[in-house]
Amino acid sequence: MTAIRRLLFTGTVAAIGGVSFFLLGLPLPFLLGAMSATALLQTLRSDPLPAPQSVTQFAQSLIGVSIGCSFSLSFYQSLIGLAVPLIVYLLSVMVLGLVSGILLFKLSDLDGMTALFCCVPGGASEMISYSEAYGADSRIVATYHTARIVLIIVSMTFLAPWLAGSPSAGSTAGGAGNSLDLFAFWTPVLLVIGTLAWWLSTRIRFRAASFLLAVLLGVIGNGVLFHLDKAPLTFTMIGQMLLGISVGSKFDRATWIRIVRLGKTMMLVMMFTLLISLGIGYLFYRVTSAGLVTSLLATIPGGAAEMATIALTLGCDVTLVAAIQMIRLFTMFMVAPGMTIWLGRRLAARETEGKG
């Protein structure tokens, strides 16, 4: 079976998973269902086939366009007013990452550099690349970040609708108000814009290019041409399923074996990070005018596209969620690796002195 046929088969299985979760009325069904079905398929395969990076980037482009269609013009004013809370939040989440890394180092047999790169609350692909360049075990780092993102997606998929007071809010991907005319006309148009954003991101390379360019094109297109309140259901469904395939395809037998080996320790540290992150999000809610669910989705380190997707589904301030998530990723990308490398070397030196 060729790679293309295997990818098409993966897409079919993911679609079945998404539709099944939708029929069961589960939250965020097309993301969570596709992710679960793909992870199960990868585990059962003797020769797993991870989704190409282009699938992830295309999914981020589609989600970015969806966010652009929901863009609020009052966004800039609200963001400027959050300058001080944002700075405090970024410092807090950076400290949380370092503390979690030290905790993982103390409780496991991992070296300091690997443990710290596991817990940096930044982009998974960037931290994996950095870890490999500086001698850390990139396989463990990749496993930890994948498990962390899945844990946060699953937790917030169920917690956010409950806090919002609408347990069934996740049973649709883009709102029940999307009519057939939106499906017939705007969905193909938005797919073209998402494809354009993805193509541009392959030519203009910078951090999260596919996501940011898609948001920009979505804002411009919706302001000039579409004038939609939200993207059509079918369009957001496609983006969520592709994102689910991307995340789920990272789970194969080797990944599960590594998770089992470090299972208790990894889960303890991840739960610690999740609970403290929820506390930081609650404090952000208390000192700002943002709603509780918006604050949690904006501040928890679960990925910009993933948290923005949940916010979009629940009708939260998706532009604020996406912006704060992207600010966190940019900050961690610029600052965290240097601090992690410095602290990792200090931990390695202390470990050597202790053995000596």
UniProtKB/TrEMBL annotation:
Swiss-Prot/TrEMBL keywords: Membrane, Transmembrane, Transmembrane helix
For this UniProt entry, which segments traverse the membrane? 7-35, 83-107, 142-163, 183-201, 208-228, 266-285, 292-314, 320-343
Report whether Transmembrane shows up as a keyword of the record: yes
Q: Quick one: signal sequence residues?
A: none
One GO CC term on file: membrane
InterPro entries referenced in this protein's UniProt entry, alphabetically: AbrB_dup, AbrB_fam
- Coiled-coil annotation: which residues? none
Give a GO biological-process term: regulation of gene expression
- Does this entry carry the keyword Coiled coil? no
Pfam families noted in UniProt: AbrB
Q: Which domain of life is it from?
A: Bacteria
Please report the name of this protein according to its UniProt entry: AbrB family transcriptional regulator
Q: Which organism is it from?
A: Planifilum fimeticola
Record lineage: Bacteria, Bacillati, Bacillota, Bacilli, Bacillales
